[in-house]
Amino acid sequence: MTDLTTVELLWLEKRIENRIRFGRAVAERIIDRRRRILSFAPGTIFAFVRWASNDFGTVMSRVDILRAATPGQRYSTVPWVTPGGDILLRLTGWPKVERVLQLIDAVEALDIHPADVAFDYWHHVHNRLSVNETPRPYTRGRHQAWLRRRRIAP
């Protein structure tokens, strides 16, 4: 048995799109031209975006920012993710998903990989977007403080 967390990605034109927005996969397996499986090491942070539509328009938009399951630690199950992960952020509805994607773009504009962002930032984003407030942007200063805290934390 492997300790890796796997995510099945699917793309059916104009119907379903499951994709990774960011994350550092350690392995990729292509099943066919529409499906592939990415594997993440324990503790790795990644964003999983899901979208589905039918003949009448979009029926589901969702973003999950997860920390890959670590052996011996608890985790939540998420569709398409095996075995699951620690949910740092989970939002549904296109306006909220779009806002999270914009925040990810803003983090990347700082030349910071979104997977390296402080875990509590994603919780902060979730709490603010859930009540339709604008979250504070992630800054280089906040990132430096996170890196220092992570260095001394047990």
Automatic annotation (TrEMBL):
It comes from the Bacteria. Pfam families: DUF2840 (PF11000). InterPro entries: DUF2840. This is Glycosidase. It comes from Bradyrhizobium canariense.
